[in-house]
């Protein structure tokens, strides 16, 4: 061993795990996929085809809530925003707006 000081890397802050928006992306994809469940074959039971529609709005909102802090954290630190968080927020927004648009059209037409 040499008497020179060895460089010891600083401890990385482990208190706050950085997902980079993966959770938001998974929730957004799940919410958008649930919108397509009524278009599954009619041979499937109605429970499989229509039950996921009840989860579109809550899962879409969860995708937005899960992705926005990652985007805000990236903006504060000055690094480019995580693409997965951005896409998750976008898909969550689309999934949250789709039932509201359908409800508005139903009220106006009917």
UniProtKB/TrEMBL annotation:
Keywords of the record: Membrane, Transmembrane, Transmembrane helix
Transmembrane regions listed in the UniProt entry: 21-41, 47-68, 89-107
Top-level taxon: Bacteria
Chain residue ranges for the region called Disordered: 1-20
Name listed for the protein in its UniProt record: Uncharacterized protein
Organism, as annotated: Streptomyces yangpuensis
Lineage: Bacteria, Bacillati, Actinomycetota, Actinomycetes, Kitasatosporales
């Amino acid at each position: 061993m040499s008497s020179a000081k060895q460089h010891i890397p600083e401890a990385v802050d482990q208190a706050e795990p950085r997902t980079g928006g993966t959770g938001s992306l998974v929730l957004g994809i799940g919410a958008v996929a649930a919108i397509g469940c009524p278009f599954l074959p009619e041979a499937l039971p109605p429970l499989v085809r229509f039950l996921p529609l009840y989860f579109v709005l809550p899962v879409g909102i969860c995708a937005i809530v899960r992705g926005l802090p990652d985007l805000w954290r990236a903006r504060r630190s000055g690094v480019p925003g995580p693409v997965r968080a951005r896409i998750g927020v976008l898909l969550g927004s689309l999934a949250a707006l789709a039932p509201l648009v359908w409800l508005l059209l139903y009220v106006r037409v009917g």
